[in-house]
Write a structure and sequence with these properties.
By secondary structure, the chain is α/β, with parallel strands linked by helices. 40% of the residues lie in helices and 18% in strands. It is built from 5 helices and 5 strands; from the N terminus they run E-H-E-H-E-H-E-H-E-H. Strand 1 (23-28), helix 1 and strand 2 form a beta-alpha-beta unit. Helix 1 (34-48) runs parallel beside helix 5 (166-172). The longest helix has 30 residues, at 69-98. The chain is globular and about 55 Å long. Residues 1-20 have low confidence and may be disordered.
Length: 173
């Protein structure tokens, strides 16, 4: 399991009285079209909140190629490098839009399980932001996090309608 944290997205707590607590919006990034809707909403909200931040979270499937360990390790490294490059590109676009420099977190494993574990580890989360599919059917993460599990999460779940256009999202944030 690999995790990358952006050190620029933490605030020192000097005396505990006046420290600014970051209120991070976490977005699960995958290759779906609704990911960009969730990212737009979360980065717009984070840009309007004092101490607001955004975390781009992605879980990649573990490589299971046991016969040739060197090949499996190389495939894993390539998947991590490709994922990191995509998230860094997305982070640059978010920064240009909202002025917020996102934290990038990459883990290896089942996306639902890894995202849930991540949410439970953090104490600085303001909300998990997901977007519904434009086609109307909930995606696997929306289905998972909006069911009975939602009652026990340490932060709210925000589900952005999948048919919202960029202008609509900008008016909401």
């Amino acid at each position: 399991m690999a995790v990358t944290h952006d050190e620029n997205n933490t605030e020192p707590d000097t005396d505990g009285k006046n420290a600014v607590r970051l209120r991070n919006f976490v977005v699960a990034v995958d290759d779906s079209e609704e990911t960009l809707i969730a990212v737009r909403f979360a980065s717009g909200r984070a840009g309007h909140i004092v101490g607001g931040g955004i975390i781009l979270f992605r879980a990649i499937a573990p490589v299971d190629f046991q016969h040739w360990m060197a090949v499996a390790e190389r495939m894993r490294e390539e998947a991590m490098d490709e994922t990191r490059a995509k998230l860094e590109d997305l982070a640059a676009k978010i920064y240009a839009y909202s002025g917020v420099k996102p934290e990038i977190v990459i883990r290896e494993g089942n996306p639902k399980e890894e995202l849930l574990a991540f949410i439970k580890e953090r104490t600085d989360l303001f909300a998990l932001v997901l977007a519904a599919s434009p086609g109307g059917e909930p995606g696997p993460l929306v289905d998972y996090f909006s069911g009975p599990l939602a009652a026990n999460l340490p932060c709210p779940v925000v589900i952005v309608p999948g048919k919202l256009k960029t202008d609509d999202i900008d008016r909401l944030v």
